[in-house]
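[[Encoded backbone]]
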Amino acid sequence: MKTTSTATSATSIASSTTSTTSSAASTGARTDEAATLIGGARERIDALDDRIIGLVQERMAVSAAVQDARITSGGRRVHLSREMEILGRYREALGKPGTALAMTLLELSRGRV
């Protein structure tokens, strides 16, 4: 009986160690506490990314409505001075990477010709 109990304990410890090692390895953490914190933060980041993607899609739809109204009234699809305002706002808020982000958003929002 003692042998079975010892084997069961060894299996349980090995399983626990593998789980901890796997969790730490997947997060790059060196402790269980850090792995837990990182796992929770990653879940929050994923949720934020989902919201950001939804907002970008909403922005694209609103931009398409603006472009349609502009074209229907005889204007051009793109309003360059407005795009410069947007670039400036993102640059002021986020620095140089903000400009690149704004350019990407503008490109996504220009619609398909």
